[in-house]
Design goal:
Layout (H helix, E strand, L loop, with lengths): L20 E3 L2 E3 L3 E3 L13 H13 L4 E8 L16 H16 L4 E6 L11 E2 L13 E2 L2 H20 L4 E6 L4 H6 L14 H18 L6 E8 L8 H13 L4 E6 L19 H7 L7 E3 L6 H9 L5 E3 L2 H5 L3 H6 L17 H4 L29 E5 L3 H12 L3 E5 L8 H5 L8 H14 L3 E3 L6 H5 L15 E4 L3 E3 L12 E3 H5 L8 E5 L3 H11 L8 H8 L22 E5 L15 H10 L3 E3 L2 E7 L2 E7 L5 E7 L3 E4 L3 E3 L4 H6 L3 E4 L11 H14 L2
Parallel strand pairs: 3-4, 3-12, 4-5, 5-8, 6-7, 8-9, 9-10, 10-11, 11-12, 13-14, 13-16, 14-15, 16-27, 18-25, 19-20, 19-25, 20-21
Antiparallel strand pairs: 1-2, 17-26, 22-23, 23-24
The protein binds flavin-adenine dinucleotide, NADP nicotinamide-adenine-dinucleotide phosphate and iron/sulfur cluster.
InterPro entries: Aldolase_TIM (IPR013785), FAD/NAD-bd_sf (IPR036188), FAD/NAD-binding_dom (IPR023753), NADH:flavin_oxidoreductase (IPR051793), OxRdtase_FMN_N (IPR001155)
Family: In the N-terminal section; belongs to the NADH:flavin oxidoreductase/NADH oxidase family.
Cofactor: [4Fe-4S] cluster; FMN
Length: 699
């Protein structure tokens, strides 16, 4: 165990988190490491300034160490065609812009070196074995002995270039199923030469890379290894192999291990919001018995309180917070100053980060649309404060109100309900989406500290806005300069015979517990909300799974001699029999998130939900829901009666726009955002982005 240099005065709020950490020649001011995330800005030279600004903002926010997204050590190792790499002196010059910006902002930055292997979206790719990638289309070339040695050299060369570019450390990507991990695992390494077969042979590639890198960089230059300590794939590594590899890494000159969990193709979710916080820290803690170099824990660590608890237990030296630093670049400084209630906590939704990365879009954050747009979406102080009315305290209205107030505008927020959050508060009641409550907490606090006047239980009319009687102010001061209409959406009531039958209820009524729900339920509509509601209906009233139950549900093995630690999932039985029905033919849940959709689809399947596509809704009566079912070609295949106690309607939403015309016609400056603007394809990502953009657009 490393013994950190004791600070003169321990931080009163998070003493362990704010203790410096020594990694070889580098002293981190605190234990918060911003883990590597590919943003899409790495790949194009003209995005260098944007990338520098993105990292500099996080350095100013107090991150102990920033690790860049992965830069390839060769063209064959690129994540995407023409993706970011570190292979020549021109690239060194480009990267000095980044390292300079971070250093000027008072931060430290490490470059992650990656070879994607079979995970490359790249026609030139090479890989350890013959097994094709299940996530990318291009075929790869199985590496020859000559290519292997060349690849080892490229790691050394790139490490040397990174040091010359001013990086404070490098991280070798050895996890998540990328090339190094592909060599380590029998799952992807079917070689019969000296690079495959026995544990020693499979580990040889990484050992040689470490030796080569150590040869090429200065003795005190930190080399961090991102090591997969739980592959969660069949034929993954056993614990003994992982422990042995960690010991070898230390022996051959790795200065810290940043632990990594799960491959991209793993059947166990590892970072989505339904994964319990810190679910995998125990794996990192177990490694403590094997090595004495610093260990960094990662995955679903999103608050300083949780991080402090981990560090206090004394078996881990630092925590990796990647997405939490996207959501709030000032997380470390806020924690340091005892203002952790002001942190915009990452909710693990993946909607604007990983989901974007996997479809080649620039990464941002659902909660913080400025992420990746630091130079273009700015919220500078206003020179002339305006009196702004924001109507509706859903995500759109909250983002608009807080951002406008932060800029110095005088903001009043009107909400018809008794609390803030809008539809998002319903989302927070779904099992596995409890993190969404953090967003409500964040906005509650931000409204307070930014002096927004909040009117709860106040459904305002256009007249009250126009004559100023809605305002807390009096006389001329009550008149509004701008009105932001963020009145959101209401559930759509489809036109089905019997829709007013007492057994029918909206998703809001079901989730908010306004109505009793029977044991057999049909859900109309299999969109995002239909899936969420179905999951809600299949579990009991206190849905949060403890870690043990969650591991059972997803088949995480307690027996670490099992390769990859995966076993047969043992889900808890459903508390209700649920039918999930949609009109479209074909597979359900196609529109769910790229990286989270499979988890929802698997969760519904494991609860035995009957999924019916291609249905038309004929009638709802005392017998239940009468449907006609069609095949993919639209031919009728039969009629059915789903004998249920209740029907829950999740058939999309409609905009609430009753204030738009009267206010616009009256000539007042109006801005319509979120669901009020457009109900189709609405999500909190768009709502918050529009709210932030409207605040940025005010003079
Ligand atoms: P709303 O949330 O509808 O808020 C509008 C607010 O305006 C309401 O509070 C309403 O009371 C108020 N209002 C209306 N008229 C007036 C008036 N005249 N005066 C005062 N107040 C008024 N999105 C995601 O991105 N990811 C998810 O995982 C996700 N999961 C979801 C799960 C569920 C179960 C549900 C129901 C929604 C989910 N959503 C999710 C959708 C997300 O919550 C909505 O897209 C988002 O809330 C829309 O924001 P909004 O501010 O435009 O509208
Ligand atoms: P949605 O995804 O558009 O789904 C609406 C569903 O209702 C569809 O399955 C549609 O399918 C059905 N439908 C539409 N009109 C109907 C009608 N007249 N009669 C019967 N069925 C009808 O919308 P949503 O589920 O309400 O979700 C709203 C938004 O919240 C979505 O845009 C989503 O992005 C967001 N959200 C996201 C997540 C997430 O995990 N990322 C989770 C929840 C919600 P058919 O037409 O085939 O029947
Ligand atoms: Fe976290 Fe969601 Fe933002 Fe990604 S988009 S950083 S998961 S809050």
């Amino acid at each position: 165990m490393t013994s950190p240099t004791a600070p003169v005065t321990p931080n009163p709020h998070f003493p362990h988190l704010f203790t410096p950490l020594q990694i070889n020649g580098l002293t981190l001011p605190n234990r918060i490491v911003m883990g590597s995330m590919h943003t899409g800005l790495e790949d194009r030279v003209w995005d260098t300034d944007k990338l520098a600004a993105y990292y500099a903002e996080r350095a100013r926010g107090g991150a102990g160490l920033i690790i860049t997204g992965g830069f390839a050590t060769s063209r064959a190792g690129q994540l995407v065609i023409l993706g970011g790499k570190m292979t020549n002196t021109l690239e060194v010059v480009r990267h000095r812009t980044i390292t300079r910006a971070v250093h000027e902002a008072g931060g430290l930055i490490a470059m992650q070196l990656i070879h994607a292997g079979r995970y490359g979206y790249n026609p030139f790719k090479v890989a350890a074995g013959s097994e094709p990638s299940p996530i990318h289309p291009f075929k790869h070339l199985k590496m020859t002995d000559r290519i292997i040695w060349h690849t080892i050299k490229t790691f050394g060369q790139s490490a040397k270039l990174a040091e010359r570019a001013g990086y404070d450390a490098i991280e070798l990507m050895g996890g998540e199923g990328y090339l190094i991990n592909q060599f380590l695992c029998p799952h992807t390494n079917d070689r019969t030469d000296k690079w495959g077969g026995s544990t020693e042979n499979r580990q040889r590639f990484l050992v040689e890379i470490i030796k080569e890198v150590r040869k090429q960089v200065s003795a005190d230059f930190p080399v961090i290894l991102r090591q997969s300590i739980a592959d969660f794939v069949k034929n993954g590594q056993t614990w003994d192999e992982i422990a042995l590899m960690a010991r070898k890494a230390e022996e051959f000159g790795v200065d810290a291990i940043n632990t990594d969990i799960g491959w991209h193709e793993a059947g166990v979710p590892t970072i989505v919001t339904s994964v319990p916080r810190g679910a995998f820290v125990k794996f990192t803690e177990r490694l403590r018995d094997e090595v004495s170099i610093p260990l960094i824990a990662s995955n679903r660590i999103n608050t300083p309180e949780f991080a402090e608890d981990i560090l206090e237990r004394g078996r881990v030296d630092a925590v990796s917070m990647a997405r939490p630093m996207l959501a709030d670049p000032d997380l470390p400084n806020k924690a340091r100053d005892g203002r952790s209630d002001e942190i915009n906590t990452c909710i693990g939704c993946n909607q604007a980060c990983l989901d974007h990365a996997f479809v080649g879009k620039k990464v941002s954050c659902l909660l913080n649309p400025r992420a990746g747009r630091e130079t273009t979406l700015t919220l500078g102080a206003t020179r002339r404060a305006r009196h702004v009315a924001v109507i509706g305290a859903g995500p759109a209205g909250l983002a608009a109100a807080v951002s406008a107030a932060q800029r110095g505008h005088r903001v009043e927020l009107f909400e018809a309900g008794e609390s803030i959050g809008g539809q998002f508060s319903i989302a927070a009641r779904i099992p596995g989406k409890e993190e969404f409550n953090e967003t409500i907490r964040y906005y509650t606090r931000q409204l307070e500290i930014n002096n927004v006047t909040v009117h709860l239980g106040k459904r305002v009319s256009a007249e009250e806005i126009l004559d100023g009687s809605a305002s807390a102010a009096k006389g001329e001061a009550a008149k509004f300069d701008d009105v932001v209409i963020a009145t959101g959406v209401v559930p759509r009531i489809p036109d089905i015979p019997g829709i007013d039958h007492p057994m029918v209820m909206s998703y809001a009524d079901a989730v908010l517990g306004r109505r009793d729900i029977g044991k057999r339920v049909a859900v109309i509509g299999a969109g995002g909300i239909g899936f969420d509601v179905t999951e809600f209906l299949t579990v009991d009233e206190s849905p949060t799974l403890n870690l043990k139950e969650w591991e059972q549900e997803w088949g995480v093995s307690e027996d670490l001699s099992i390769p990859g630690f995966v076993t047969k999932p043992r889900p808890l039985p459903p508390v209700r029999e649920v039918f999930l029905v949609q009109r479209k033919p074909g597979r359900q849940g196609k529109t769910l998130g790229k990286t989270s959709g499979w988890v929802h689809r698997a969760a519904v399947k494991m609860k035995g939900v009957e999924q019916i596509s291609g249905a038309t809704y004929d009638l709802i009566d005392d017998e239940g829901l009468h449907i006609t079912v069609h095949d993919k070609e639209g031919n009728e295949t039969g009629k059915r009666v789903l004998e249920v106690d209740n029907v829950v309607v999740c058939a999309g939403q409609e905009s609430v726009r009753d204030l738009v015309d009267p206010l616009t016609v009256a000539g007042i400056t109006t801005h319509v955002i979120g669901g009020a603007d457009l109900a189709s394809e609405l999500d909190a990502k768009r709502a918050i982005r529009q709210g932030t953009e409207v605040a940025a657009s005010l003079p």
